[in-house]
Amino acid sequence: MIFGVDFSRFRIVREAADMSQAKLADLAGISQGKVSTIEAGKANPETATLNAICAALDAELILVPRRIGGDVRALVDRHLNRPTSVGGPVMSVRDELFIPDGDD
């Protein structure tokens, strides 16, 4: 994971589309090895590469505030008929310390 972006989500969407890494690579115009390293979180892909992968997956790359990230992931998981992840929304240390909730 680089810069807080979880590129393993591409794998989830790719698998939900019943697409191999090789097919995704072909559609996106990149190598299968590049797809593999991106999905493993070992690459920092350029915006053009991310856009090409999204186009190949018929998906969009969007920014989501961390406070609702967990809810958005659960929504996507339900859409992909995957078990929803356990846990609440993703929060940064700053949010946990400085944004009051019912426990503060």
Structural description of this entry:
It is a single chain. The chain is mainly α. The protein folds into two domains: 8-57, Orthogonal Bundle (434 Repressor (Amino-terminal Domain)); 66-98, no CATH class. Helix content is 54%, strand content 0%. Helix 2 packs across helix 3 and helix 2 (21-28) packs across helix 4 (47-57). The longest helix is centred in the last third of the chain and has 14 residues, at 66-79.
Quick structural gist:
The protein is an all-alpha fold and 104 residues long.
Notable characteristics:
mainly alpha; 0% strand; 434 Repressor (Amino-terminal Domain); 104 residues; 54% helix
Q: Tell me the span between the first and last alpha carbons.
A: 31 Å
Helix content: 40-55%
Number of domains: 2
Structural class: mainly alpha
Rg is: 16 Å
Question: What is the CATH class of the largest domain?
Answer: Mainly Alpha
Write down the overall geometry.
Answer: globular
Overall CATH architecture of the largest domain: Orthogonal Bundle
Give the assembly state of these chains. single chain
CATH topology of the largest domain: 434 Repressor (Amino-terminal Domain)
Number of strands: 0
- Main beta-sheet strand count, sense and barrel state: none
* Average pLDDT score: 81
| Secondary structure tally, helices | 6
Low-confidence stretches: none
Run of helices and strands: HHHHHH
**CATH level-4 homologous superfamily of the largest domain:** lambda repressor-like DNA-binding domains
Task: Indicate the proportion of strand residues.
Answer: under 5%
Protein name: Transcriptional regulator with XRE-family HTH domain
GO molecular function, one term: DNA binding
Domain HTH cro/C1-type: 10-64
InterPro entries: Cro/C1-type_HTH, Lambda_DNA-bd_dom_sf
